[in-house]
């Protein structure tokens, strides 16, 4: 017995650690390869994409100017800040502003230019709180609402509602564009919906703040009236359902705009306004004070790790993702240039290989990535549905890198039930209750154009056909901002498509 015990207590021969733990460790394998920058294809892609990006920046810079030079000069002469100056003065110094739908209205109304749809919308940090900012640009047709203006504001409100972002409205508008009012008021998702959204968000505790910095006429008067708190600028802001000309026509009474709906009237008599501002800068200071007093605390239930730069420079994407839709590229090379440390844990790497799925981090935040690498087969669709469900279980946001012509067609594939398998993926994505971000990195056709039902950046300049080609690096920059700054603890049950 004692001999057996002694044998049992004898030290075992140790196996070298390198043998036992050949794959042990917390590190994740890096992805990507160094492209041959001297190849003809790479150089052709780089040249074409760089030209498109330069053109895009040039157009964006023109849009940022707003109205024509005469309108801007007249606006400034009245002692007002320009719309973009107001936004810049409102957000925290040095913090980014994620502008939405910057190309809304671009060449939409022929010779009648409406830069940015006549309204600036985007997400910015105010007193440390991410807010949705909606600012009318009075240098563009007096800040009047075109159909595309309404659509853009509704989109911003929906994003704010889903992410529970406080809304700040910088109001300076003459109301609806009357020649187009039949297109503005006629439908469920037209102008009246903006007030409905405002009421619903306020009832759900999503703060609504309005700053009247110019005209606020007719139905637009409901914006400050329905806000939780509002500010009006002295000798500049006016709120009334009917302006002086209408009052005179209806009642014969002659009254100035200031006496009818100015700051003194609404702060001292009617009580419609809560704060009296001396000028634009004072009004924006009051907004920051209001936001500071919201007692808002951002809660995150995701693990955040230190951020790392990708191992490969972003401008290599110019040479990898070309303007030629018939030329394939490996989406893994795109992933390697946007995720932290180019680290990617691929899921089901050997199954359904025309769809790449896996986990990574962007700015330290976890992200589930789904990237197209060819047409979708049944295996790809089932793999995608499985991965989406995993991300939902773990509360991990989804990033779609889309470049696809659709599902595979043919007798063999129909017999295998591709319609049912495709439906499984569509259902999984539609029901996903995590943030969804889409980068359209090349071509998108068929059902897949709307499949992700999520945030969308078109990454290359749109051509006359369904071809869409714009630089991938622009899209990755916007995506990174969203991942870094949006309240990812929020579950999203619906989705919004964002386009230029």
UniProtKB/TrEMBL annotation:
GO molecular function, one term: methylcrotonoyl-CoA carboxylase activity
Record Pfam families: Carboxyl_trans (PF01039)
Catalytic activity: 3-methylbut-2-enoyl-CoA + hydrogencarbonate + ATP = 3-methyl-(2E)-glutaconyl-CoA + ADP + phosphate + H(+)
Pathway(s): Amino-acid degradation; L-leucine degradation; (S)-3-hydroxy-3-methylglutaryl-CoA from 3-isovaleryl-CoA: step 2/3
Residue ranges constituting the CoA carboxyltransferase N-terminal domain according to the UniProt record: 49-306
EC id: 6.4.1.4
Biological process, per Gene Ontology: L-leucine catabolic process
Domain CoA carboxyltransferase C-terminal: 309-440
Source organism superkingdom: Eukaryota
Enzyme class at the top of the EC tree: ligase
Family label: Belongs to the AccD/PCCB family.
Protein name, UniProt field: methylcrotonoyl-CoA carboxylase
